[in-house]
């Protein structure tokens, strides 16, 4: 399934959302954030499946994970003319003082799924 379809099908995962692993025992819902959604889509894209509750717990705090990606990324600035061109599936982290204050995933070259 394409990332864009996956993101759209799981619109409840994001800021103020809830997620629970249907295979977990018990399936305790996680409160989600934009960073949790970024972690979820990155995992889904890398492994071709959704993470389990145990994997999410082992990965750790989503804020820390996304903040750690900043040093490995490429800084993008709004162009003077035209639109910013993205790569579908790219992770965008909006940074303030070296801390990721928002993150999301590009679903097309010109749009992101805002969660």
Structure, explained:
The chain is an alpha+beta fold. It has one domain (3-113). The protein has helices at 3-9, 34-47, 53-59, 62-69, and strands spanning 18-19, 30-31, 91-96, 99-108, 111-113. The strands form two sheets. The chain has a three-stranded antiparallel β-sheet. It has a two-stranded antiparallel ribbon with strand order 1-2. Helix 2 packs across helix 4 (62-69). The longest helix is centred in the middle third of the chain and has 14 residues, at 34-47. The relative contact order is 0.19. Mean pLDDT is 76; it is low at 1-5.
How far apart the termini lie comes to 20 Å
What's the pLDDT, averaged over the residues?
Answer: 76
Give the biggest beta sheet.
Answer: 3 strands, antiparallel
> Count of DSSP helices?
4
Structural class: alpha+beta
Low-confidence stretches: 1-5
- Morphology: elongated
Residue share in helix = 25-40%
| Overall number of strands | 5
The radius of gyration over CA amounts to 14 Å
Question: Strand-and-helix sequence, N→C?
Answer: HEEHHHEEE
Biggest sheet: strand arrangement: 3-4-5
Relative strand content: 15-25%
């Amino acid at each position: 399934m394409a990332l864009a379809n996956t993101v759209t099908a799981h619109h409840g995962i994001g800021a103020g959302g809830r997620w629970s692993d249907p295979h977990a025992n018990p399936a305790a819902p996680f409160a989600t954030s934009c960073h949790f959604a970024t972690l979820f889509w990155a995992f889904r894209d890398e492994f071709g499946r959704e993470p389990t509750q145990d994997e999410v717990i082992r990965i750790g705090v989503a804020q820390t994970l996304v903040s750690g990606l900043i040093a490995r990324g490429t800084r993008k600035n709004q162009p003077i003319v035209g639109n910013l061109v993205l790569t579908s599936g790219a992770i965008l982290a909006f940074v303030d003082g070296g801390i990721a204050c928002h993150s999301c995933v590009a679903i097309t070259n010109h749009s992101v799924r805002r969660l």
